[in-house]
Amino acid sequence: VFEALGGGVELREGDVAIRGNVATVIDNVVVDRRGGVLDTEETTQLLKDLDGMVCEGVRCIVKPAKEHRFFLVLRGEGLGVDVQLNDPHAVNVAPHPIVALGKGSEKTARVLNTFVKAVEQHFSTHPLIKELKDKGRRYPTTVLLRGIGRWKPVQSFSDRFGLSAGAIAGGNLYKGVAKLFGMEVLNVKGATGTQNTSLFAKAEALRHAVKRFDFVFLHVKATDTLAHRKDREGKRQFLERIDKELGEALVEVVNEGHTVAITGDHTTSSLTGEHTGLPCPVLIAGGGVRQDSVKRFDEVSVGKGALGLLRGNELIHVLLDVA
């Protein structure tokens, strides 16, 4: 749902939304969950002719996201969301069968199986696949679907906390989170949600946003992406880019009297390429912050800080208190 909202689809009651990757599966074994890591333009080219296909009266809205990712919205009658999808979240294993896990979701499973078969047939004759083969690049053969949900209205951020809110993000997922909760998503040219994103552009957007909103959510994606690729050096370099390209604006915002928090929504290991349950470091600056003795911002050093161990849903209340 978040991905589809962030991708510009106005969801309706009853719509079912699913995230997916183009992927390489050979002899029923997942070789690459990212299909050779296509760029956004290549994924767009591959998927555009699938948008709008109809199966059992259900319209399939297919849109590219960033790089190898895409989302699918099923629009029609009789759709459930209790379905096992085919992404095993691992390589060198078989994709899961797409099956209904509960009554009322059988039609969804049938439609998704038909969709995956249509994708595989489409890819097998697509000129871009031939081009990738000729260049010796790994190429996608199918799609792996992961994460299914149905849109429903929720209480807005403004109604819950009494704050106007703006969001700066490049990735559809994060724009979608913001949209669902009624934040105004700011269109920032150059904010791509990928490694080539313009952090300078995000910094400039932040300078303007703090004058308009009580609360600003600024998201950076590439650290997570690079960790998933086990690119430890690339992640280190991108963290240095954040310091260089966003740091000055953050200091300005604090000096203007605003409260700033720097953290992450989860940890991703550059060694395993997977998410972990380890806590994220949190730094809060400005206003009535109690200064502690921590001098380095990393996962280990901040464990000795004055904030202790916070749950994610406690952070907003700390920020409101400090501000």
**Beginning-to-end CA distance, first to last residue:** 32 Å
- Fraction in helix: 25-40%
Question: Based on helices, strands and strand pairing, what is the structural class?
Answer: alpha+beta
Strand content: 15-25%
Largest sheet: 6 strands, antiparallel
List how many beta strands DSSP finds: 15
Number of helices: 10
Structural shape? globular
Q: What gyration radius follows from the Cα positions, in whole Å?
A: 21 Å
Mean pLDDT: 94
Order of helices and strands: HEEHEEEEEHHEHEHEHEHHEEEEH
SSE topology sketch:
Blueprint: H1 2-6, E1 16-26, E2 29-32, H2 40-47, E3 54-55, E4 58-64, E5 69-75, E6 83-84, E7 99-100, H3 106-124, H4 127-134, E8 142-150, H5 157-161, E9 165-168, H6 172-180, E10 184-185, H7 199-212, E11 215-218, H8 222-228, H9 232-255, E12 260-262, E13 267-268, E14 275-276, E15 283-285, H10 315-322
Parallel strand pairs: 9-10, 9-11
Antiparallel strand pairs: 1-2, 1-5, 1-8, 3-4, 4-5, 6-7, 12-15, 13-14
Helix pairs in contact: 7-9, 8-9
Structural description of this entry:
This protein is of the alpha+beta class and 323 residues long. Helix content is 33%, strand content 20%. The chain contains ten helices and 15 strands. The protein has helices at 2-6, 40-47, 106-124, 127-134, 157-161, 172-180, 199-212, 222-228, 232-255, 315-322; strands spanning 16-26, 29-32, 54-55, 58-64, 69-75, 83-84, 99-100, 142-150, 165-168, 184-185, 215-218, 260-262, 267-268, 275-276, 283-285. Strands 1, 2, 3, 4, 5 and 8 form a six-stranded antiparallel beta sheet that branches. A hairpin with a 6-residue loop joins strand 13 and strand 14 (275-276). Helix 7 packs parallel to helix 9 (232-255) and helix 8 (222-228) runs antiparallel to helix 9 (232-255).
